[in-house]
Design goal:
12% strand; 292 residues; single chain; globular; TIM Barrel; alpha/beta; two-stranded parallel ribbon; 47% helix
C-alpha cells in the first residue's frame, strides 16, 4: 500500500475518533500495549514517545511486564512496553538519548553476529540483487532453509563490502549499563527460526545468550523471534537458557487477566518509514484492527 494512501487512511482513523475510542478502551480495561521499533529516526521515535506521554500512557520495562504476568506487580492504567529489534547503530543516536531524556525503559534485542561483523544478512542480499538484477526477493530468501540461506549469503559476502550498520560489541556493553536499557536475545544470525533444524535452533538461541552475557556480564532474560516466526520448538531451548518472556510480532494488546503464554508475547510494530499518523494508529492497534 502506497505511503500516501496509508497517510490518508490514518488521518481518517484519527479525525473520526477511532484512535480516541481505542485509547479509552485500552486504558479502561487496563490493557498493556507492547510496541516495537527497528531503526526509527530520532524525530519519529521522539514524536511517538511524546504522543504516548500526552495520551496518559505509562512506560514499563520488560522486567515490570514479567512481574505483572507472574502476579508480583499490579498493572498501572495505560501501561506500555517499548522494545527494539536487531541492534542497528542508528539506535545509539536516535533512541538511546530520547530514552534517557524521558526516562523510558526499553529492551533492545541484539543479533550478535551482525554486531560482531557489522552487517545484517538481508543487506548483503538486497545490494546483490540490485547489482545483478536478481528477482529473488528478501521475502523469498526468508522462506529458504537456514542452510540454503546461509550458503547464498556467504557467497555474496565474498563479493560485496557494506559499511557497518549494526552497533559494535562495545556499544552494547555501554548501553547495557544505562539505567533504562535492557539487552535481550535476538539469536546469533537472525535466522527464521522455523527454517532451522533443531540443532541450528539450539545453537542460534543458546550461543547468543552466552555471547551477550559474556559481553555485558548480566543474565539474558528476554528473547524476540526474528521476523516474528515461531513454531514452539523454541520453547524448551528458551526455557533452558533462562528466558522469561519471548516476544512475537502478533499485533495484540496484553490482557493480564487472561492466560498469557510467556513465550508468545504480542507486539505492535512501528513502521520506521511510515508517517507519524500511520504509526499512531499502529501503536494503539487501530491500524491492525481494520487493515490486513
Amino acid at each position: 500500500m502506497k505511503n500516501f494512501i496509508k497517510q490518508v487512511i490514518s488521518i481518517v482513523f484519527i479525525l473520526f475518533g477511532f484512535v480516541k475510542r481505542q485509547n479509552k478502551h485500552v486504558i479502561s480495561k487496563n490493557l498493556i500495549t507492547p510496541i516495537y521499533f527497528h531503526d526509527p529516526s530520532k524525530e519519529l521515535f521522539e514524536m511517538c514517545i511524546k504522543w504516548l506521554i500526552k495520551n496518559n500512557y505509562h512506560f514499563i520495562s520488560t522486567d515490570d511486564l514479567h512481574e505483572i504476568l507472574i502476579g508480583n506487580k499490579k498493572v498501572k492504567s495505560g501501561s506500555v512496553c517499548i522494545t527494539v529489534d536487531d541492534g542497528k547503530k542508528g539506535n545509539l543516536k536516535n533512541i538511546i538519548p530520547i530514552a534517557e531524556e524521558f526516562k523510558i525503559p526499553i529492551t533492545i534485542f541484539i543479533s550478535t553476529e551482525p554486531v560482531t561483523n557489522g552487517v545484517f544478512w538481508w543487506s548483503y542480499f538486497s545490494i546483490h540483487n540490485k547489482i545483478n538484477n536478481k528477482k529473488l526477493s528478501i521475502e523469498d530468501c526468508k522462506k529458504l532453509t537456514n542452510i540454503d540461506r546461509k550458503y547464498i549469503i556467504n557467497k555474496i559476502k565474498k563479493t560485496i563490502v557494506i559499511p557497518r550498520e549494526a552497533m559494535k560489541p562495545e556499544d552494547v556493553v555501554r548501553i547495557s549499563n544505562l539505567e533504562f536499557v535492557t539487552i535481550g536475545n535476538h539469536t546469533i544470525n537472525h535466522p527464521i527460526t522455523t527454517s532451522c533444524e533443531i540443532d541450528e535452533l539450539e545453537y542460534e538461541i543458546t550461543e547468543a545468550s552466552k555471547e551477550l552475557k559474556s559481553w555485558i556480564s548480566k543474565d539474558i532474560n528476554y528473547f524476540a523471534y526474528p521476523n516474528g516466526n515461531f513454531d514452539n520448538r523454541e520453547i524448551p531451548i528458551l526455557s533452558k537458557c533462562g528466558i522469561k518472556l519471548a516476544f512475537t510480532t502478533v499485533p495484540k494488546h496484553i490482557n493480564y487477566n487472561e492466560t498469557i503464554n510467556h513465550f508468545q508475547i504480542p507486539r505492535f510494530c512501528v513502521n520506521d518509514n511510515g508517517s507519524f499518523a500511520e504509526n499512531i494508529c499502529k501503536m494503539v492497534g487501530v491500524w491492525q484492527k481494520y487493515i490486513k
